Amino acid sequence: MALSVEKTSSGREYKVKDLSQADFGRLEIELAEVEMPGLMSCRTEFGPSQPFKGARITGSLHMTIQTAVLIETLTALGAEVRWCSCNIFSTQDHAAAAIARDSAAVFAWKGETLQEYWWCTERALDWGPGGGPDLIVDDGGDATLLIHEGVKAEEIYEKTGKLPDPASTDNAEFQIVLTIIRDGLKTDPKRYHKMKERLVGVSEETTTGVKRLYQMQINGTLLFPAINVNDSVTKSKFDNLYGCRHSLPDGLMRATDVMIAGKVAVVCGYGDVGKGCAAALKQAGARVIVTEIDPICALQALMEGIPLLTLEDVVSEADIFVTTTGNKDIIMVDHMRKMKNNAIVCNIGHFDNEIDMLGLETYPGVKRITIKPQTDRWVFPETNTGIIILAEGRLMNLGCATGHPSFVMSCSFTNQVIAQLELWNERTTGKYEKKVYVLPKHLDEKVAALHLSKLGAKLTKLTKEQADYISVPVEGPYKPAHYRY
Amino acid sequence: MALSVEKTSSGREYKVKDLSQADFGRLEIELAEVEMPGLMSCRTEFGPSQPFKGARITGSLHMTIQTAVLIETLTALGAEVRWCSCNIFSTQDHAAAAIARDSAAVFAWKGETLQEYWWCTERALDWGPGGGPDLIVDDGGDATLLIHEGVKAEEIYEKTGKLPDPASTDNAEFQIVLTIIRDGLKTDPKRYHKMKERLVGVSEETTTGVKRLYQMQINGTLLFPAINVNDSVTKSKFDNLYGCRHSLPDGLMRATDVMIAGKVAVVCGYGDVGKGCAAALKQAGARVIVTEIDPICALQALMEGIPLLTLEDVVSEADIFVTTTGNKDIIMVDHMRKMKNNAIVCNIGHFDNEIDMLGLETYPGVKRITIKPQTDRWVFPETNTGIIILAEGRLMNLGCATGHPSFVMSCSFTNQVIAQLELWNERTTGKYEKKVYVLPKHLDEKVAALHLSKLGAKLTKLTKEQADYISVPVEGPYKPAHYRY
Amino acid sequence: MALSVEKTSSGREYKVKDLSQADFGRLEIELAEVEMPGLMSCRTEFGPSQPFKGARITGSLHMTIQTAVLIETLTALGAEVRWCSCNIFSTQDHAAAAIARDSAAVFAWKGETLQEYWWCTERALDWGPGGGPDLIVDDGGDATLLIHEGVKAEEIYEKTGKLPDPASTDNAEFQIVLTIIRDGLKTDPKRYHKMKERLVGVSEETTTGVKRLYQMQINGTLLFPAINVNDSVTKSKFDNLYGCRHSLPDGLMRATDVMIAGKVAVVCGYGDVGKGCAAALKQAGARVIVTEIDPICALQALMEGIPLLTLEDVVSEADIFVTTTGNKDIIMVDHMRKMKNNAIVCNIGHFDNEIDMLGLETYPGVKRITIKPQTDRWVFPETNTGIIILAEGRLMNLGCATGHPSFVMSCSFTNQVIAQLELWNERTTGKYEKKVYVLPKHLDEKVAALHLSKLGAKLTKLTKEQADYISVPVEGPYKPAHYRY
Amino acid sequence: MALSVEKTSSGREYKVKDLSQADFGRLEIELAEVEMPGLMSCRTEFGPSQPFKGARITGSLHMTIQTAVLIETLTALGAEVRWCSCNIFSTQDHAAAAIARDSAAVFAWKGETLQEYWWCTERALDWGPGGGPDLIVDDGGDATLLIHEGVKAEEIYEKTGKLPDPASTDNAEFQIVLTIIRDGLKTDPKRYHKMKERLVGVSEETTTGVKRLYQMQINGTLLFPAINVNDSVTKSKFDNLYGCRHSLPDGLMRATDVMIAGKVAVVCGYGDVGKGCAAALKQAGARVIVTEIDPICALQALMEGIPLLTLEDVVSEADIFVTTTGNKDIIMVDHMRKMKNNAIVCNIGHFDNEIDMLGLETYPGVKRITIKPQTDRWVFPETNTGIIILAEGRLMNLGCATGHPSFVMSCSFTNQVIAQLELWNERTTGKYEKKVYVLPKHLDEKVAALHLSKLGAKLTKLTKEQADYISVPVEGPYKPAHYRY
């Protein structure tokens, strides 16, 4: 695929796999809208006043059908939008096509190379000579990273005249980032500074991106305000947990058709994502085993009847391995060599370094047999047995299936819309400093409330006496900040 | 697709969608073999003696990857095989391609018309002038039906000279059957008699087909011995139950990506299939409601915490409807009109008459919007709201996903191989009359035993004293015939 | 407790722990009646016609609150009743008191010695000089056994003048049986023949008793007709399964207050009882492991995500052991020695020979510490660690708690009433020979139907067309005899 | 029971039901010790250094077997202890007896009147003329309340000479509190000031007590430092959740023997306690319905497949009602009148005002029938139908069963020991002000870790590289403060 930007008849830029899939994408977007009451409520509540009038929003977030409904909510509220995916396999091409044709500038397709991936990210941030976006919707923090690295490089360049050197790192992906920045510096040595200047803030979707932001806050290097959407209760305790409970078996089934019942399945990590994965596998009839580093999460697994062991204890007996840790180097090639024939190895954490793909690819004599896209059998020469790797070690629910379903993404994305509105509305008030914030409890409760009636649920109302008795307002918020749900 | 038979280079007949998918099919067949220990054990145990040497086997059973492993087990034991699918949507084209290229005569593709479907069935039964097959592997009983109807028509024709009249029935599909028989009669008025003569017997896969066989036994019209494979414990209590528990959510997800958690799901029927479906939906977080006619099954649902209501009670509140009854006229167009917008309606029973598709198609002003193949939205003119029908009312797990996974099909199909062997080995002994038989308990237990070690399981052995105490042989069978598991 | 019969003011015999508990018993019986719709329906339907007028019924079945409702249903239908418990620990003394005072001759108390147990059984069968009962309600078959052994001994005595010799057996309990028969022979050498003569038949409650009956049928030694109530679907698939799912954790909690969550629990046997136990433990958060001899049941466990191992594999790691096999010698003293300190060992099968109590009691140096009645800690001298044995190896749910709850017992006992009615009504027609029978399907379905409305359930009705399509009557029965539910 | 203090031979004060139950209590305490690894580890780790040497600890916390192990852990670390229960029904008399005889001054018995209850609380706080305790272990905050109210009254009395007037409140229980304070004022007008002076701090066990503390902190009236033990993760996410999952069905079964399967059960409130209750009921086969005021908790219920309705919607159809809200006026007499005959109504929240007992007791013509202690049937005159109230509306798991099991209480109580140590060790450092604190994350993780090996669990260890990658120390703590588990 040649990396050149295309334009719609109305002149909007895009780069997608196949614009002719736009009609199919539109049909699925319409189905999704019915399942996303939070986003549709935002359109009803805020659409008329056009609060995003004049705002440029760049998103770096899986370009799926659900994200399409998010994008069109942002545009319905008046924003101009440019978008890329935050994972090379997570785009649904018909969603990208529909958005590119109808609503926003999209640069995303399923199966990008890393080179292409960062080209797309750059395109999404590129609003022309006048600088970058006003707001960023980020997932995993790659858009935010690119700006921070860009600013850093420009500062060094200004002081020392030195360009960033891609050869200075072993990390193949970071080499690409440095190359992009280096090439940009040559044409405009203030490009990322201009972006930073204009930027009102970022709202970050996921655990991994949030970790990066807090790290920058601690180091004092954060360049603009950030809202941590991940830690809204209606995000992390729903999307991470119930989303994965849905999409993990979906990914396994679409990729391998394997019968989960009767199998031994190892889930590495028992955070929200791990809890969702373990629940799904257990309910499908697998014997689930969990590995954990945190004794509290470990004890939770045990209380649910799930054995807690180390990967070494079970590596040669398990049939399915899932990494959910957000950490690196969880399943190494040395583990993989000891696995049963056709053991399935996959990752549902944000980054692809939980599974030692490099170790696998460079293992002497290893043979890769592609069963179908995102489903590969790797055969070890000594034993002539193989393991099955899903989505090349990347997010298997988005690589092998369609990610989380609309309803739960409506919770997450309603938080995103609210966070974006908050940043934009307060852009001149100084309310938000260069720090990481979470949304206030009452907004979190509001997001939940917007999703109840779709499910036919009826809330009980506190009387004034009851509210006073437990010292909360009748209308909420109902819980202290530290409440864990 | 023109209905003409093609031939491989070796001269074997076939008609499939795309022979170039054979390599992909072969890769998936190889994965499936690892998951099908029962079938692979049959190859090891019986392959060397070639027991099916000289036997012609016709199969009418979903042409999937798993069925491919069954077919190649039959051929590995010496049989010659011709195959068709028993459902217009259930073929996996890559499986059909691999088998057509490598192993047997296949007439099957995903998305046949009914006309094409019966053409395929006829092809599979057509072994040339020398008559038909020695054995039939049937699923739902269509191959058996065609022969029985053929013989009946030939007898009438012989006596009265009358040809069957397709116009004598309202049932569109049965019109096609009569047409085929009529046209056949013209060329060979003894065709089905010759088939009947040669036929050693049939082994039937599923509840629906078994019901037909018992009915014919009661009426005294059964033309050859039949083995009821469905009621092997290792079939009905595994395939029907655990197979559907796996493949129902798989079908829902692939067709609609709907979030099951939080939804109200109605399962019509709480037999083995209904139990599997209800369990899957409940575990995924749906509020499940069951409808039943049988008070015992009804009480079982209640003991599992599942409300028992009538369809009328819940038709306007539920989000997902699944029919599993094996009966007809379960969800009528009048029900569908009252459903919520985008309610999902699907069937996982063998035949497509559980859902009133005719009523829907002929509803005045109704509009069909195909989201993608096997996923249609039907919009009613009065309300402008729509419902989503999966697989046009046919088996949604095979129409919208890939059916049951390999491991559980290995149980079912090992019973098939054993049944076929039994019929063939006893073809001259008179052991089997024109009746319906089930496999003896010890073979049922053997099928189970063949699947245990794959799962790392260890059976306990009875001592002689213990076996005597409970009056069973040390090696089994362990249970009386009436035991329900 | 002196073994002398007492009499109520109205002259009815009894022997219970404490008649003053009758009021308390009555209150709980009244609660139970609300939960036992099947029995109450029998009173309404059959009470007016007094079908049991003139019938003497002896019952040998756990003398609990639920059994009290059964007894008073039999008396409400006109029967005279004498009753004993079929287990030394299973009597609820307040239930026995209420029945003794108000309704029937009862000989039962919690904590009988074996000597006392058989004395009670003899009393329940002793209807005075005119012979024994017309009908027996048996559970485990001890009343039936006593008559069969008595008849056998009388025949030998008549032929040879030889009295039975208790010293001829090692089995302590059988020594008592022989002693009773011997002593009876001295006073009336035709006592059991007279009983046999009068007896119309027996209805048997449980798996173990049924096994004995079929064995006698095979051997041709069965002396009167028997109805196998256990294998009514509404008995074995409800009482055995859902009853144990309820009462196993109840027994564990009342006996030991142990936290089940987090523990490793081994269930020996995965029949209906084992399935109920495993489900309960799993749901409470235990890591459950099953042992099985039957490969089909074994594969069922695996499909539910339960590991299948041998007792030897897990004996030193598990915290809770439950036997459910109906076989003997399952957990031997040699296993117990290897268990963790305070491992809990219990049995929920009918007889107490699943756990090697004799081996434990006679283990050199072993020390028994009674925590409370039916909860003993046995300490091994080598390790000074102990295990906890519940109910001395007998049915722990009845020994340590109150057995199954009323609702599920209503299903079982409605079958009993129907079986007793059937035997009595057909007593002169010759319908029942000296064989074992099960109740016909339509009665089984009726039992279920009687329990649905209490749970607010609504059955769907077949149309005539639907009934014809599946070849069943509109009113049922709906399933073939071999259907497994 | 006459309210006079008794003394052991060694001179320690006590008032219990029956000291002769001490041996039985001791046996159960020894069993519990094996199940409470956290407390036993504290004895091993801290026992030798006797950190509580010289400390007087007063506890107001359910006097159960588990609490006995807590008390003896405090004494093993050098403390002197006086104890009362925090609920009139929650004492296990054998536990109280063993502790009274062997370890500490206990004033507690099952079935206290409210008068007796507060007398016991006063006794536990009364350390003689030298003032009160150094430390308080509180559960629900009654000991803390008494001191705060006492100090307040003394201040008024000092300023105005006015004694508190019990007639000034409608609340029967608060009248007793005021009476006690009034009577105390007459003998020592500085009694509670002296207590306050000496007091180092309180550690509070439960949600309700914690709410009171935060309220006092906000009002600025808190008189000494408090550690909120409830919100340690290893308390609230274990005890509240898994403890109730265990003890709710236990209480239901012991009180009523009701079959839970098939019933409709309403859980009011879906916090940690409600989640545990709903899970238990669902797993036992009930159809569970939840009522909630908080939209987030409501949405969680829906994601688990649990319908969310209001009490009004279901009051006449449900069989079992459980309140878990921590609020008041949840089930009113007007609700109760509409319930089905023999509906079970119970509360598992800390206080007894969730159920309108006053409304019930004063309902015209209502009749109370005590089935057995803590199980009453209340019959309404209009309908002559009744409802069953457990534990007179108080904590049913402690009133009708034995409360939470040892293992989970070991988590809670290890937090208590650590909190008490922390307060005591820092008593002179000024680290703790008159505020409410939670324990630091690393101590929370330590509590969990102490409980893992008992369950045979194996934690994974982070490598240094992995720890750096996620920016945590190798040894933890592993999560940010806001993490929700």
TrEMBL record, chains A, B, C, D:
Which residues does the annotation say bind substrate?
Answer: T64, D139, E205, K235, D239
Name the EC number(s). Answer: 3.13.2.1
S-adenosyl-L-methionine as UniProt keyword: no
What's noted on cofactor binding? Binds 1 NAD(+) per subunit.
Q: What is this protein called?
A: Adenosylhomocysteinase
Residues that bind NAD(+), according to the entry? Answer: 206-208, 271-276, 292, 348-350, 397, 404
CDD domains, from UniProt?
A: SAHH
Organism of origin: Morus notabilis
Q: Where is the S-adenosyl-L-homocysteine hydrolase NAD binding domain?
A: 240-403
